[in-house]
Amino acid sequence: MPQLPCWQLPEFSRSQDEEQPPTWMVAFLFPLEDTERDLFMKRLVVVDNLENWPDRPDAKPRRLLDVPWPFDFIPDSSIISAIFERGGKEPLIIIDERSKMDDTAILLYRSESQDDHRILRAPINRANILLSAAAEGKIDFKGEDFQPLGYETPAIMVSMRDTEFWL
């Protein structure tokens, strides 16, 4: 895989216009046809029901804006560090090649009140709500034992200070 200079990465932040509803950017890290990307976006919008997720946080899902991967190769996971460094202050949902296999999304949570930002992998149909709940202060992504409630598999979470790379 070619090494990408930081300036060639897509822009993953945007200014929030007060007239626009709150929006999460969804960064795709592999090439997809429009129809495939639309399927991922639909899965991010459909929230897991209360029967499967009894402890679901009371948060409003946000509008989503997709950012397609503009290259014809798949980067390795170290690209997430570069995205974090280049990105703005808003949280970000990341869809990578593993997302196709296990229906998960990577959440990059950036909090103005924390020195240490967090990244975790969560079920795709819970990503929007989890990020919204964190932004609204209803859940906290701190602690090594954070796990999306009602999900059998613990979230994989690391501090951005500690990343070499993993996910």
Q: If you had to describe this structure to a student in words, what would you say it looks like?
A:
The protein is an alpha/beta fold. The chain has one domain: 3-Layer(aba) Sandwich (Rossmann fold). The chain is about 20% helix and about 20% strand. It is built from 4 helices and 6 strands. It has helices at about 35-45, 80-85, 95-100, 125-135; strands at about 25-30, 65, 90-95, 105-110, 120-125, 155-160. The chain has a 6-stranded mixed sheet with strand order 2-1-3-4-5-6. α1 (about 35-45) links the parallel β1 (about 25-30) and β2. The longest helix has 12 residues, at about 35-45. It is globular and about 45 Å long.
How confident is the prediction overall: mean pLDDT?
A: 76
Overall 3D geometry? globular
Biggest sheet character: 6 strands, mixed
Task: Please report the total strand number as a whole number.
Answer: 6
CATH class division: Alpha Beta
Strand order of the largest sheet: 2-1-3-4-5-6
Radius of gyration: 15 Å
Fold-level CATH name: Rossmann fold
Do you know the CATH architecture?
3-Layer(aba) Sandwich
Uncertain runs: 147-167
Report the span from N to C terminus.
18 Å
Counted up, domains total 1
Please give the structural blueprint:
Blueprint: E1 23-28, H1 34-45, E2 63-67, H2 79-86, E3 92-95, H3 97-102, E4 104-109, E5 118-123, H4 127-135, E6 156-159
Parallel strand pairs: 1-2, 1-3
Antiparallel strand pairs: 3-4, 4-5, 5-6
Summarize it:
This protein has 167 residues and is α/β, with parallel strands linked by helices. It contains 4 helices and 6 strands, in the order βαβαβαββαβ. The chain has a 6-stranded mixed beta sheet with strand order 2-1-3-4-5-6.
